[in-house]
# Entry
Amino acid sequence: MLLIPCPWCGQRDEIEFRYGGAAHVEYPADPETVDDATWARYLFVRPNPKGPLAERWCHSQGCRRWFNIVRDTVTHQIMRSYRMEEAP
Amino acid sequence: MSGSEHPDHLWRNPDPKRSYDVVIVGGGGHGLSTAYYLARNHGITNVAVLERGWLAGGNMARNTTVIRSNYLWDESAAIYEHSMKLWETLAEDLDYDILFSQRGVLNLTHSLHDTREAHRRVYANRLNGIDAEWLTPEEIKEFCPIVNLSPDLRYPVMGASLQRRGGIAKHDYVAWAFARQADAFGVDLVQNCEVTGFDLDGGRVTGVQTSRGPIAAGKVALCAAGHSTVLAAMVGLDLPIQSHPLQALVSELLEPALNCVVLSNAVHVYVSQAHKGELVMGAGIDPFISYAQRGSPHIIEYQLAAAVELFPIFSRAHVVRTWGGIVDVSPDASPIVGLTPIENLFVNCGWGTGGFKATPASGWVYAHTIARGEPHPLNAPFSLDRFARGALIDEHGAAAVAH
Ligand SMILES: Cc1cc2nc3c(=O)[nH]c(=O)nc-3n(C[C@H](O)[C@H](O)[C@H](O)COP(=O)(O)OP(=O)(O)OC[C@H]3O[C@@H](n4cnc5c(N)ncnc54)[C@H](O)[C@@H]3O)c2cc1C
Ligand SMILES: [Zn+2]
# Structure
């Protein structure tokens, strides 16, 4: 089980959280003009690196706020925890 | 296997040659069956299977071996049923006893929605010529007496669908059987050989870089399960795949108690009793992306709580071993098998939590795709471009529990 640092509550067990997948996925700026391939990429393709990954978590059993962490997908080490409005 | 003597080896352990007609990346079940069918069905034998570790040390050796073909949509039913038919003669085809046992796969339902979905799937299966039945709780009692049918359960059992032709096989024997026959055809099974890059000439792949030197290839076929996106990224190809840990566990050896495979999507249990006697159970995936080859203990705890409630007779059994594999999950819980935008580069991935049952068919259709340069009718719907076309094959219902 991961020990996840919530930016508001500090370290808590993973079971208090909900996973939100990759962070910083941008909605296409002008959705009417993008082609099918670009739209499919936005909908279905997410980063899946072997190494550091910026991802969203929600502290659903705690403060109920969303935030981002950077976590290594091989070692599970969490390098950074930051609020949604903070830069990646 | 014919004869009772142990052979010295089942396959050679060759050094890689400098060039092949086809290089398959990944020596799991799907890579090995692809090599076998390339040779057997298409006469292509100048082939190497390059494996980073040892043969079938990935998900092929880590799965819970549930085999069934009762998927909802026509496209899935067709490919998984083709696999089932291949399983039914595979031991003879490969001349190797793979302990394939069609003991029946029972899919329990615990809510009205579950029950309606199961009925829908039973009828859809029958329309596709796949055996499927609905069992009432009384009929479940008769078929599998140890299931707890008490109304006191947190989620009481309301019924079950049953595929009698479903069952299990011994996964390592399956891998060895394919490996042995591929080797006999002259295929090089090259172990400790990690692919680290690709050689491109314009939009065409011409070879691979490996930990054992460069290898030229007429065609390159990816078959790397949880590592598919890592390889695809080396040629700038994005795949809609997320890699998650999936765990399983076994008990000590017990007297025969469970005569079939039991799955429950709602409370997330899947269990069978292997030939030797151990209970084999699968847990769920961890929600997050990981390449760590292990999952979290609380996932196992959750799985066991549900299992013990459904099977009170298991409450004194001990967990002897747990392990994890990294599975390649696609957005629609269906595989991706076919061409890529890069000429002579092929992809086979996305089988996620349920690709063991597809081992023979996956190799069959992938070999056809590689040999002909165009998909077999059975894998044409499972192309990579289906996501841009919106032609998803949503099997979350039939694949929701990891098996
Ligand atoms: C716990 C668990 C339970 C499961 N239960 C079931 C079940 O009951 N029924 C079912 O149908 N399916 C089940 N599955 C899913 C099934 O195991 C997989 O879908 C299937 O095995 C994937 O195909 P494969 O055998 O080719 O994969 P793998 O055996 O994982 O083969 C991929 C190979 O690629 C190699 N590789 C990766 N990168 C490189 C590289 N750069 N160079 C060279 N080689 C590389 C890996 O080392 C690996 O050996 C389960 C999976 C797990 C983990
Ligand atoms: Zn919090």
Summary: Residues 9-62+171-240+331-389 of chain B form a domain with the FAD/NAD(P)-binding domain fold (CATH 3.50.50.60). Chain B has two domains: 9-62+171-240+331-389, 102-166+242-329. The longest helix of chain B spans residues 74-94. The CA atoms of residues 37 and 283 of chain B lie 32 Å apart.
